[in-house]
Amino acid sequence: MAGERERGTAGDSDWIFASDDPHTLPTEQLPDRAAFDRYAAPLLERKRAERAEALKEQLAQRDSGAASTVRASSEAASSDGVSQSPPLHDGGTPAAAPRSPLTPGPAARPRPEARPWPDAPAAPDRRRTLDWDLDTEERETPGAGPGMDEPVLPSRTVSYARSGTTPNVEDGAAGGIEVPERFRELGVFDALRDLLALVCLVTALTTTFTYAPVPMLGMAGKISIGIGLAALIAVHLLRWVPARPPLAVVRAVRVIGLLPALAVPLVVVAVDLVVSLPRLFSSLPDGPPVGIGVGVPLLLLGAIVGIEPRRHEGYLPHHVARNRARLLVLGIGVAAAAALLLALVMIVGRLFTTGWGFSVMVFADALISALLLAIVFAAVWRRDRSWIVFSVAAVAGLVACALADNTLRLQFAAPLSFATGFVYLPPLFAAFGVMISRSFIRTIPISFRRADWLVYTVRVFEFSVLMHAAAVIWHLLAAIASPTGVTRGGPVLHLLDAVVCACFVAVSIFARRALLERRAEVARASGVMAGAVLVVVGFLDIIVNSVATGAGSGLLTGGVALTTGIAAVLMLTVPAPVRDEFGAPDLTRMFADFRMRDTRRASLLDQVPDVNAERARRKTFPGG
């Protein structure tokens, strides 16, 4: 799976489509509207001309038929001495000829209201229009009858789609939720990011901000949150209320209003670092001097997500912005590495002041945190598309849990400090905020293919292997340090948890190898069985640890195994029956595409048999 690095795209090309996807378009960039119009204009003009000619012939035939009918009736009337005239409809217009094949019958379903066809030739009489495609399968058979005696002009041109049953955009708008015209520029991605920023700011106002009661920092955090919330509301009012919104003002209000929310958490982290430096080697029986609560990284995440201008505000990241976004993520990784180095220095110093048991457990916690950060930043450094997407999903789960910290009382969201351990949550959430920004997403081509279900399933098992291997080391260190009283459980419980985590590692390795090497049906069944084992054993591990130590769900107690098992089972079972472009589910083809994604695909010429030897062989003519 190592050959999946993507090189990015130049300019502002559409980043949704990957260049190596054989099941999508053959180009990396979709044609814009102007290019499509240039391509479609001659086709549409030719079809309109053909229909105009057909309509002229139809009208000519109708006029000739009507003339012959009138002539015959006039001759009959003159012979009888009575003058007859054709029947009149409302308005005094004569009755039309028999119904055209283009006219639906009286039993046809009612169609949307008609719109005039601009290229229809002028005709002396009135004709109804019909708002439906001539290529539809719902045409009525030609025939005559009441209400079927008027020719019909199509009201709009044929729109091209991949399938004959695919609805057009204008047809789907009437059946679904119709968005007002002025709100159609608001993208789903931008709306979700604004919603996430709003939720993070509100949650940061209600969760733990700092460990020690520092009135100045707490007040500054509340003021910055209030300004940020007001800015988010103001930018949407300025964008959608006026008829002509001032986009430059909207962008300025967004950036300026969220700058305090971005600066305050950075100040809190810097204050904790400065105050903790003199106490790195001293015992802290009363806890850290400041401490960084979960509200600080949530406020930092909300500010980073909300500060970037949106596309509906006239912002489109260019090449410089994309490069800066990637460099910013790498800079956050360097800051996290520096914090890890400082934590290692503190751990060594606390061996002599606080005790070796404390230092061992802090090192174990730092090992797991550093591994999680390494997965995220290594994916960015290598520009591995699947690992980037999976890392974003994994950190999004931590963000969702941190938002519910007041209810769940999670251990990973407890207040941290440079004086007591490795502060990893602020850089992790900051990197997550940058990675879901439009500027960063445009640095890599992101697409989704059918085989990606298997790719992300493999990533789930690889993530399970890495994290549970670290959990095994953590439990072994905890078993060693448990006699000092720094852990909740005893050595026996930690050794049992280490064995359970080792089983998780073995099951994940087995499932990964099955997905990569075995036949499609066997590989899928093996992956589902492995996911089920992770779910059941992880759930039992959570129950045992909650009863024995009062600990909740987490990496060290089976929570990650439960989550990864559910994700793997769903990705292997739900997408499999989905119909592919050939009309039937093909699990073998799905696995074949998945396993060939990192190798050079065989050319069609390689499948042509070699006939040189047969051509060189001398053949005798039969009977010669």
UniProtKB/TrEMBL annotation:
Keywords from the named record: Membrane, Transmembrane, Transmembrane helix
Segments passing through the bilayer: 191-211, 223-241, 253-277, 289-307, 327-352, 358-380, 387-405, 417-441, 453-480, 492-511, 523-544, 550-572
UniProt keyword Membrane present: yes
Membrane as UniProt keyword: yes
Region (Disordered): 1-36, 54-173
Domain DUF7937: residue ranges: 190-581
InterPro entries in UniProt: DUF7937 (IPR057697)
Biased composition (Polar residues): 66-86, 156-168
Protein name: DUF7937 domain-containing protein
Organism: Brachybacterium epidermidis
